[in-house]
Write a structure and sequence with these properties.
With 223 residues, the protein is an alpha+beta fold. It has five helices and six strands.
């Protein structure tokens, strides 16, 4: 992972799982990762074709110029990319894998910015791997990001990782939490990537939400 936000979320998740395939949803505490919380989201798997946003951070909503709650993650992508993301999410929820995605998003007037996204499995209260903890953050700083609607996006690179073969960078969850609490929130954004055909603006499929510090505990109803 290239960005400190995605790396920090992975470190926290890896520490909280404590050698298990995934941590439980109710073990994830917003206060432990408040520095990166604006770019964190949680997905709920309904079926193979539907991964809905249960929560999405205010930073991510601001960058896209829209809200995510209730929106299907897969509908944000063109057909070819949607199939690739679908397969990756099935690996996350089916095999407790880790996926890192580098992708480019573009405005209607052709401006482009590159993101890094990490997708991590979470165990729901019923014992199923039906939740996905993730973060998506602009890679480079660019002044216009957040001022213009990001209308389409496409994958530049996708990697599936085995967490058991990745370096253990923290001795305990408490260490990762203290480091996250001390960091400043990340800043936005951009880079140029390969184009995909023009699609419908993403905004048409979103309703409004703002994620606050304690929203993970109350708004999601622990699910």
């Amino acid at each position: 992972m290239k960005h400190k936000t995605t790396q920090a979320l992975f470190d926290y998740w890896n520490a909280m799982r404590a050698g298990r395939p995934a941590p439980r949803r109710n073990e994830i505490e917003p206060g432990d990762m408040r520095a990166i919380l604006p770019y964190v989201f949680i997905l709920e798997r309904k079926d193979r074709d539907t991964y809905r946003f249960r929560l999405a951070g205010t930073g991510l909503c601001s960058v896209y110029g829209m809200e995510f709650r209730g929106h299907n993650m897969l509908s944000m992508w063109g057909d070819d990319c949607a199939e690739t993301i679908k397969d990756a999410l099935e690996d996350v929820t089916g095999n407790a894998g880790v996926t890192v995605v580098e992708y480019t998003a573009a405005t209607t007037d052709g401006r482009e910015t590159t993101f890094e996204m990490v997708l991590l499995p979470l165990t729901h209260e019923d014992g199923t791997l039906s939740r996905v903890l993730g973060a998506a953050v602009p890679v480079d700083r660019q002044s216009w990001v957040g001022d213009s609607l990001l209308a389409r996006q496409w994958i530049d690179r996708l990697r599936r990782l085995d967490p058991e073969r990745m370096p253990k960078r923290e001795p305990a969850a408490q260490t990762a939490a203290r480091r996250l609490a001390a960091e400043k929130p990340p800043v936005a954004v951009a880079h140029i990537g390969k184009r995909m055909p023009q699609g419908a603006p993403l905004r048409s499929e979103r309703s409004y939400l703002r994620l606050v510090k304690d929203a993970l505990s109350r708004s999601e109803e622990r699910g």
